[in-house]
Amino acid sequence: MKPNIVTVILAAGASSRFNGRKITAKVQGDQSLLAHSITTLNQVTTAAGIQTPAVVLGAHLNDEIMAITSTSHRIINHDWQQGLSSSVKQAAQYAIDHHAEALLLVLADQVAITAQDYTRLVDAYYQNGLSSCAFYRENVGVPAIFLAEDFAALMSIEGDKGAKSILKRHEKNNSLNILTMEQAQFDIDTPADLTRWLNQVS
């Protein structure tokens, strides 16, 4: 029987550097950034035989976003102004509530990551049961799979921080699968990032 992995896409931020809702920006034809992320992760979870992804929403809630997430489980982060850590906590709590053995944590704006990349992470976790993460910009980072034993640490993160400190600890202890994933370094934070991406895919 396969381990109980849950997947959570973080998409609750204010997108202040983007000057608006970047998760509804079109990144491929008429497909928005958030829809692109959900579609990609749906492929991964379906192929792996695990639960379809949940999405953490917060700063921007409107009819368009509700339509994009209509077939996804929504987690509403009312504390989104406290930074990234508030969404990480929501994801960890979701994993705890679902008695998950592992949590695949994903940022909605890492637009260049493919279904094959995420599948490599899941496969690495399946092989030895260790936490697994991407490696880019000469550092470990998300997307990453955290074990149930990490959930308490995820719940304790404060401020506008993600879960890198937990990955660094696992790296130091040689208890981490590290997969080179240079395309993970491409995220959309600004309108200029979006322009570069659109030029790349056109």
List the helices and strands and how they pair.
Layout: E1 5-11, E2 26-28, E3 31-32, H1 33-48, E4 54-57, H2 63-68, E5 73-76, H3 84-97, E6 102-107, H4 115-128, E7 131-136, E8 139-147, H5 151-155, H6 164-172, E9 176-180, H7 191-201
Parallel strand pairs: 1-4, 1-6, 4-5, 7-9
Antiparallel strand pairs: 2-3, 6-8, 7-8
Description:
The protein has 202 residues and is an alpha/beta fold. 37% of the residues lie in helices and 23% in strands. It has seven helices and nine strands; from the N terminus they run E-E-E-H-E-H-E-H-E-H-E-E-H-H-E-H. It has helices at residues 33-48, 63-68, 84-97, 115-128, 151-155, 164-172, 191-201; strands at residues 5-11, 26-28, 31-32, 54-57, 73-76, 102-107, 131-136, 139-147, 176-180. A hairpin with a 2-residue loop joins strand 7 and strand 8 (139-147). Helix 1 packs parallel to helix 4 (115-128). The longest helix has 16 residues, at 33-48. The N and C termini lie far apart (42 Å). The model has no long low-confidence stretch (mean pLDDT 93).
Question: Any descriptors?
Answer:
202 residues, alpha/beta, seven-stranded mixed beta sheet, two-stranded antiparallel sheet, 7 helices
